[in-house]
Amino acid sequence: MGFNGYSILLIEDDSNDILFIQRAFRQVDGDYPIHIVKDGDEAVDYLSGKEKYADRDSYPLPALVLLDLKLPRRSGIEVLSWMRQQPVLRRTPVVVLTSSQESTDVNRTYDVGVSSYLVKPVSFDALATMIAAMDAYWLKLNEYPTLSTMN
Amino acid sequence: MELTRSLERILLVDDNPNDRLLAIREIKQEFPDVEIQEAVDWEQVHGAFETDAFDLMITDYELNWATGIEILHALKDHDSDRPVIMFTDSGTQEIAVEAMKAGLDDYVLKSPKHRIRLRQAIRSVWENALIRRRAEELEFRLQFLLNELGVGVFRATLDGKLIEASDGLLNLLGFSSPAESQPFFEQELAWEKSDPSEQQQWHREIKLEGINGDGPRWLQVSETIIQLDGQSVVDGLVSDVTQQKETAARLESLNQTLEARVNERTERLEQLNHELEAFAFSVSHELRAPIRQVSGFVDLLRSELQPIALDEEPRHYIHQISKLTSRSGRMIDDLLQFSRTGRADLQYTAVNMDKLVQEVKRQLSSQLKGRRIHWQIEPLPPAEGDRNLLRQVWQNLIENAVKYTSVREQADIAVSGTRGAEEIIYSVRDNGIGFDMEDANRHLFGVFERLSNAREHEGTGIGLANVQKIVSRHGGRCWADGEIDSGATFYFSLPPSDVETTA
User: Fold this and answer.
1) Which of A75, B10, B337, B347 matches a 20 to 30 Å C-alpha distance to B383?
2) How many other β-carbons are positioned within 10 Å of the β-carbon of residue A4?
3) Whole-angstrom Cα distance, residue A52 to residue A67?
4) By the 8 A CB rule, do A129 and A26 touch?
5) The predicted structure's pLDDT at residue B485
């Protein structure tokens, strides 16, 4: 079994933002397991279980993917697009958490199949509130599809 | 030479000394100051001609050495215009006639009965001479002027036969004689046969094809019908207006290029404006990330330091930093949104303003908690525009009204709209803290401008700038009335439309 039903995969390249998000989660739910990859190719590797990521105990398939659009190597939208073409990963809830508010970006990501689109707020408190809401909704309330191991 | 030039010197030709005395006496009666030169023979006559110091000549007819006629001819040879009077006692009608034909100005008999006429004759002859000379001079000057101005003069019959043509006209047309120019005249310049009683004077322009490979020439012809000796003739003036025509044509083409250049310039300016807006947007966008992250770290720092007992000062510093970074964050978000309203394409639809205002009021309900507000919302005429942007306009204006009336026990907010011929005008009036009109003229609608009395209230001051931008993009305008502590009314107008809405 590779899916433990509650881990989060954060796909984000900016270390400051990683810090903020981790802190926000810590405020909400002390020890929540967040796995982090810092570029698009790495994200695909993680999700497809390539090499070290084959170890699903250490690197579980996420219940929720938090995705920044601006990534090195593969872009956020390319990662999303790839996911939606995979037989099972296409069901995984993906929440985009990014700086852009451009309607073109928003529309395109929804077209490709994002579940929700969030814009990083300026104040940390607002981010914390957002993460709390995300936790309450996506991780506690939302009904999950079946996501089994890919290997 | 003035008409009043006085007669100063007379040449008297007579070989009889008694007759000479007689003449002199007569002359002096009328002209006391005149100098009289006497000539008694040919030698003296020729001498007098040579020195040429006389204005008028008086001569006898019967001289021993010549006849008056011979003297007359000699004078005419010398100067055909010099006035000359014959003063003689031997006269026949034939001689008088012959002399007059030869150019004599007057004939006076020496007999006692007639000699008294001499003075009058001198005066008349002299005056006539002056008038003649004046006329000649004027004619000369006229010709000179016409030539210099390049104006040609002509006179013709009603049916197009040239009677007279000035040199100027011949030059203008390129002919060497009136006869040569007759066919051309008949064809081009002759007055078109219409009823002479209808029109007395007219002007027209004629275009001539170029001669000798030059470009076309333009002539302006002015003609008048005058009566000459009971006959109607046409007097005309012709001038070359090619230069003026060319200048006018050049001006026209310059005007067109000017218009083209203005259009080009306007296009370029609009393009530059777009580039500037895009730049402003991209800068705001780039700036947002670092501001956001600083703000994040400040918040984290604050919470880290919370449990630690800090002194007043460092605590204050952290508090201030936190406040300022939040403010920067809000400003940048407002700026981004402001930029966005500038860049987004307008989606025009018919907009039901009543419904829009109700929506906005509903969305503000959280801000209205615990407030006593008396709303007076009148029926609003519908308009055409981008619904989303117009919502922002109402939102900004109504939010402001709500915010700046927070000090009142009861806030009065009135929303109304009237449809005029030129525009539809909407307004939001409140009884809040108002503003100083003088101050407002420069600042009210500026980006991030806040008037002095508004500083304590929340907000970054971009709301009104946003309103103005949106309204002006719709082709409308906005303005405001206010008084410190007596409230304010904000107006905005939109172009008129014939919309019927259900939306």
Assistant:
1) B337
2) 13
3) 21
4) no
5) 87
C-alpha A127/C-alpha A28 separation (Å) is 11
The residue behind tokens 């333009």 is B218
Please check whether residue B336 touches A, CB under 8 A: yes
CATH class of the domain comprising B9-143: alpha beta
Longest dimension (CA), chain B: 155
CATH 1.20.1250 assigned to B252-340: no
Domain residue ranges in chain B? 9-143, 149-240, 252-340, 346-494
CA distance B427 to B450: 21
Q: How far is A103 from chain B (nearest CA, A)?
A: 10
Same fold? B149-240, B346-494: no
Chain A residue at shortest CA distance from B298: A124
Q: Which of B282, B292, B337 is the best residue to mutate to test the A interface, defined by the most A CB atoms within 10 Å of its own CB?
A: B292
In whole angstroms, what separates CA B54 from the centre of its chain? 58
- Rounded to 5 degrees, φ, ψ at B430 are -135, 165
Tokens read off for B39: 């000539």
Q: Which two tokens stand for residue B341?
A: 């309203």
CB contact under 8 A, B330 and A101: no
Mark yes or no for CB contact B329/A99 under 8 Å: no
Distance (Å) from the alpha carbon of B329 to chain A's nearest alpha carbon: 6
C-beta of residue B238 within 8 angstroms of C-beta of residue B172: yes
Two tokens at B100?
A: 């007059």
* Mutual angle of helices B68-78 and B93-101, in 10-degree steps: 10
CA distance A55 to chain B (A): 34
Taking the C-alpha atoms of residue B356 and residue B358, their distance in angstroms, rounded to an integer, is 5
How long a stretch of residues is chain A?
151
Structure tokens at A115: 């579940």
Nearest Cα residue to A46 out of A85, A93, A96, A11: A11
- What confidence tens digit (pLDDT) does each residue in A49-59 have? 999 999 888 89
Q: What's the CA gap between B315 and B321, in Å, rounded?
A: 10
Q: B346-494: what fold? A: Heat Shock Protein 90 (3.30.565)
Q: Rounded to whole angstroms, how far apart are CA atoms A57 and A3?
A: 9
CA neighbours closer than 13 Å in the CB half-sphere of residue A37:
29
Of B351, B355, B356, B385, residue with least CA distance to B472: B385
Per-residue tens of pLDDT for chain B, all 503 residues: 455 678 889 999 998 899 899 899 989 988 899 999 999 989 999 999 999 889 999 999 888 888 888 989 999 999 888 999 998 887 788 888 888 898 999 999 888 888 888 889 999 999 999 998 899 999 889 888 877 777 888 888 877 788 888 777 887 777 887 788 788 777 776 666 555 566 677 787 777 776 666 777 888 888 888 887 888 888 888 888 888 888 998 999 999 899 999 999 999 998 888 888 888 888 888 899 999 999 999 989 988 888 888 888 888 998 899 889 888 888 888 888 877 777 777 888 899 999 999 999 998 888 788 888 899 999 999 999 999 899 999 999 999 899 888 888 899 999 999 998 889 999 999 998 888 887 766 677 776 666 666 666 666 667 888 898 899 889 899 889 888 888 899 999 999 877 655 54
Residue range B149-240 forms a domain whose CATH class is: alpha beta
Q: Which CATH number is A7-141's, of 1.10.4160.10, 3.30.160.70, 3.40.50.2300, 3.10.290.10?
A: 3.40.50.2300
